[in-house]
């Protein structure tokens, strides 16, 4: 496991996006959000998601030149078509527009359809809080979770974000509706670690008792963290020491930064 400085990671990711055909301004914005996500410890939606995003651009699933277009205006509520543009720039546009409307009306609600993956939803909660607004964000997802009593996927693991600005430090809640997100499963797999708590069943549907037995017990006089405290601690640590990366993932992103499409 290596550690990469913030500026180096951002520059490498940006070059990979430029090589994939993104305009410079959008490549810079997207690289910033991906790098900030890894900086804050959300590696699954930062560096680890770059290769897949570049693949989607190559397949034509993301239109790097598209921008949102207004479909419906209802005063404090507006609906935009994302036109399959980059999810990050679309979501930033939506939050900026929502705060603009809220500044005029007290509340602003922007709905965005026909868009692509916005990566870490918490980024837009932070955006609202930094501008002095309370932010609530959510989106739908693929039907990747089974309903109660089912074995096949039927409902989405929708992310939900709440952000409240404070002088003492913003409060930002960024969570999935499941015990674990796909991203958390990926990060754990890359580290060759087990989930801290039993997360499901094996192919025979046997309970993963081993997971429970291998859980680390709470230490006497152990430190307790409030929600988000460890994320801020990780942010400061990674800015000082460098952002930890999976060497295989980092090598692939550097290769994408060298390739010309």
How would you describe what is shown here?
With 261 residues, this protein is an alpha+beta fold. It has one domain (2-212, 243-258): Malate/L-lactate/L-sulpholactate dehydrogenase, NADPH binding domain (Ribosomal Protein S8, Chain: A, domain 1, 2-Layer Sandwich). It has 9 helices and 10 strands. The chain has helices at residues 6-19, 24-39, 50-58, 87-105, 122-130, 182-190, 209-213, 229-241, 247-258, and strands at residues 2-4, 69-73, 77-81, 109-113, 135-138, 143-146, 153-156, 160-164, 171-175, 243-245. Strands 2-3-4 form a 3-stranded mixed beta sheet, covered by helices on one side. Helix 4 links the parallel strand 3 (77-81) and strand 4 (109-113). Helix 1 (6-19) packs across helix 2. It is globular and about 55 Å long.
**Principal-axes shape call:** globular
Briefly note the CATH topology name.
Ribosomal Protein S8, Chain: A, domain 1
> What's the CATH H-level homologous superfamily?
Malate/L-lactate/L-sulpholactate dehydrogenase, NADPH binding domain
What structural category characterises the helix and strand content? alpha+beta
Kindly, what is the distance between the CA atoms of the first and last residues, rounded to a whole number of angstroms?
A: 29 Å
CATH class reads: Alpha Beta
Biggest beta-sheet profile = 3 strands, mixed
Radius of gyration, in Å, reads: 20 Å
**CATH architecture assignment name:** 2-Layer Sandwich
Number of strands: 10
Q: For the residues shown, what is the average pLDDT?
A: 87
User: In terms of per-residue confidence, which ranges show pLDDT below 50 for 5 or more consecutive residues?
Assistant: 204-209, 211-215
List the strand order in the largest sheet: 2-3-4
Q: How much helical structure, as a percent, in the residues?
A: 40-55%
> How many domains make up the 3D coordinates?
1
Task: Classify the beta-strand content into a percent band.
Answer: 15-25%
Order of helices and strands: EHHHEEHEHEEEEEHHHEH
């Amino acid at each position: 496991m290596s550690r990469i400085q913030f500026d180096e990671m951002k520059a490498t990711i940006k070059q990979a996006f430029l090589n994939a055909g993104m305009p410079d301004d959008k490549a810079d914005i997207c690289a910033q959000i991906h790098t900030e996500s890894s900086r804050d410890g959300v590696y699954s939606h930062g560096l680890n998601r770059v290769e897949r995003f570049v693949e989607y651009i190559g397949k034509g699933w993301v239109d790097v030149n598209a921008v949102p277009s207004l479909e419906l205006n209802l005063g404090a509520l507006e609906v935009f078509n994302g036109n399959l543009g980059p999810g990050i720039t679309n979501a930033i546009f939506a939050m900026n527009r929502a705060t603009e409307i809220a500044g005029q009306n007290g509340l602003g609600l922007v709905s965005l359809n026909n868009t692509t993956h916005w990566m870490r939803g918490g980024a837009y909660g932070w955006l609202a809080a930094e501008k002095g607004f309370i932010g609530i964000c959510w989106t739908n997802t693929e039907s990747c979770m089974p309903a109660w009593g089912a074995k096949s996927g039927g409902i989405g693991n929708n992310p939900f974000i709440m952000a409240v600005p404070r002088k003492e430090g913003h409060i930002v809640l960024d969570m999935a509706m499941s015990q674990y997100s796909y991203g958390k499963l990926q990060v754990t797999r890359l580290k060759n670690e087990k989930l801290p708590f039993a997360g499901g069943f094996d192919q025979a549907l046997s309970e993963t008792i081993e997971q429970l037995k291998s859980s680390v017990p709470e230490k006497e006089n152990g430190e307790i963290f409030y929600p988000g405290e460890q994320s801020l601690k990780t942010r400061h640590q990674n800015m000082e020491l460098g952002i930890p990366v999976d060497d295989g993932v980092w090598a692939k992103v550097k290769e994408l930064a060298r390739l010309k499409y």
